[in-house]
Design a protein that fits this description.
Elements: E1 2-3, E2 27-28, H1 34-56, H2 62-69, H3 72-103, H4 108-123, H5 126-134, H6 136-139, E3 142-146, E4 152-157, H7 158-161, H8 164-189, H9 193-201, H10 206-236, H11 248-259, H12 262-291
């Protein structure tokens, strides 16, 4: 707040540094916020208590955490978790983009099929989808490829085609595609329709309109939500433990079932999940900044 003396009736002072005779000089008073300091002190006390509880309690077994944090089996499980995440995201967003374009299509069949797919896969829990693909051989022992309701050209055993890793990647990708479709569709709809009309008036092909004009602008809306989905899928891969695949959560379970150090091994998994999601959050920030260039 700035307090100043009232100018004399004869007019303002001669210069910016002058004041009327007998009047006090201008004085700047900083606004105080005692509530902020009280809140900050309370948070600092709570943080100190949390750190003390983590450091002084021997039940956390930090020496065991340090022993297994970089164990070869744990590192291999971290790599496998990232591989599952990459497969789910890449194929999920590829299929999701196709579904988004089908939802925006004027063809009622394409629109209805895409809507039905999204409704189905968003309604069924991921763990059930994974179990379905893992046990697909119980429904179809052999998969045939040929003319529908006609002759088959060749067939193959389901167990030979869809193993546990394939079933996990397939389940994650198909589940992610339903959410990716809505993310991409919302991003495409966020672009002003006048952009497409102007491009069409210039004779630019529709495919070029999509990839060179519409999609780069849509990425501003797509990237933040897509980044959250990627981070969520990193943690969602822990569901594949039901298929006995050696991802991070399953691996730490195997170790603590063997040595009984439950809390320490859960901390190992927690630390690695924090590292992976933090790195992805930083990458998301820079990608958002890249596509946000030029925005007012």
């Amino acid at each position: 707040m700035i307090l100043a003396a009232t100018p004399p009736a004869g007019g303002p002072p001669d210069g910016p540094g002058d004041t009327a005779a007998g009047e006090p000089p201008l004085k700047v008073v900083t606004t105080r916020h005692p509530g902020r300091w009280v809140a900050a002190l309370g948070v600092a006390v709570l943080l100190a208590m949390a750190v003390s509880a983590l450091v002084t309690n021997p039940a956390w077994e930090w020496e065991v955490v340090g022993e297994y944090l970089f164990a070869p089996s744990v590192l291999r499980s971290v790599v496998f978790t990232l591989e599952l995440t990459a497969l789910g995201i890449v194929f999920g967003f590829l299929l999701g983009t196709v579904l988004a374009l089908m939802r925006l299509s004027g063809n009622p069949l394409l629109n209805s099929v895409a809507w039905g797919y999204i409704a189905l896969f968003r309604s069924v829990p991921l763990i059930l989808q994974l179990l379905f693909w893992y046990n697909l051989a119980l429904l179809y022992p052999r998969l045939s490829f040929g003319v529908p309701f006609g002759p088959a050209f060749f067939d193959i055993g389901t167990m030979d085609l869809i193993g546990p890793v394939t079933a996990a990647a397939l389940g994650l990708a198909l589940h992610q595609a339903a959410y990716a479709a809505e993310i991409v569709r919302a991003g495409l709809l966020s672009v002003d329709h006048g952009q497409r009309e102007a491009a069409a008036a210039l004779g630019i092909p529709r495919t070029r309109q999509l990839f060179r004009i519409v999609l780069p602008q849509a990425m501003r809306s797509i990237v933040p939500t897509a980044g959250n989905e990627i981070i969520g899928l990193v943690k969602g891969t822990s569901v594949v433990y039901i298929m006995a695949l050696p991802e991070l959560f399953y691996q730490v379970q195997v170790i603590y079932n063997r040595n009984g150090r439950v809390i320490a091994l859960l901390l190992v998994a927690t630390i690695w999940y924090l590292v992976m999601t933090s790195v992805m959050s930083v990458a998301q920030h820079y990608v958002e900044r890249h596509y946000g260039r030029g925005r007012a």
